[in-house]
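batch_manifest entry 22 of 60
target: D-malate dehydrogenase (decarboxylating)
source organism: Streptomyces radicis
requested by: lab member K.T.
priority: normal
notes from requester: please return tokens only, no post-processing; we will run our own comparison against the previous entry in this batch. if the run fails, retry once and flag.
--- input ---
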Amino acid sequence: TPPRTFRIAAIPADGVGREVVAAGRAVLDALAGDSGGAFAFDWEEFPWGCEYYARTGTMMADDGLERLKDFDAIYFGAVGWPTVPDHISLWGLRLRICQSFDQWANVRPVHFLPGVVSPLRKADTTELDWVVVRENSEGEYAGLGGRNLSGRGPGGEVAVQSSLFTEVGCERVIRFAFDLARTRDRRKVSSVTKSNAQQYGMVLWDEVFRRVAADHPDVETESVLVDAMSAKFVLRPEELSVVVASNLNADILSDLGSALAGSLGLAASANLNPERRFPSMFEPVHGSAPDIAGRGLANPIGAVGSGALMLEHLGLPDQAARLHRAIEATTAAGILTGDLGGTASTDDVTKALIDALARST
Ligand code: NAI
Ligand code: MG
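--- output ---
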């Protein structure tokens, strides 16, 4: 049979995004190269980001969404650079793609890897394994509000930033979390809100959660306030399996989770349009890391793990598992970047991953 060729749009964007996307592409091409011709990637790279903004005044081409919409997936680096205000760069590229392509479920697994020291005393790669499901289309990042509303004069500016919670938006991401829990060893969903203080949107979320939970009696559930959940991440992480939360709360909790696993540089994520009407987008959780960018120091594992999530989405779960084994073999061998206390470069880790794949065929 002819190889399945997947058309992937690569958007490295800014800072370490470029380094880790290059590394991820090299590892994914090596994997495809040893698949015995079973599949291949046909990449097209787009030069969008803060440098593009400096030249053109926009973060992506005007017809960018039109050009992306027929790809099988989007492989993204990170957006943001000190030359452009962060809210302009984020809304102009990453959030524009997520929102226009209705990538409403953001899946962010936290894996504990062998050879990586966690700041958690109890961390054990066999017990700690959870996934944050982030509502990715509304909530606190709905972009609703405004500034300087009623002309209160100099020094009296007022800003309103509203959250949007719809029953449909809550229900689809909560159902997604339950479906995911049913594929895991521990069938449990923890819902996170702050509904004691945010009495409209988050109370609606809690009500929808209780209703969906009633449809899934085989899945254990809990509803936890976000402040308590942040403590629980540190003190009782072995009780977590699937954690579902609104856009902002899940954004914060997933950075906490990846730091607990050892580094933000390890964390992978998938921005999914589960109906597959639009391409989904796969990206490391971290940002453009201007403090280390351009020096070959970035940890590529978050980007490579995002490649594994892309393989799952493309219907290649065995290849994704192979990639995870290569990641584990590399960290177990002590080939670690500086964020994990090691001395390896981005290229050293990339080469080690490719060697581990070659050994595993
Ligand atoms: P950041 O994630 O870029 O960096 C936070 C810390 O983690 C830094 O010390 C950095 O060196 C370290 N780090 C991040 N990725 C790493 C990697 N692969 N290997 C080793 N260490 C790594 O977050 P920060 O500094 O708050 O934001 C920098 C820029 O990135 C801003 O412009 C921000 O808006 C943008 N950003 C973009 C995101 C995206 O594109 N999805 C997500 C988060 C931030
Ligand atoms: Mg974040």
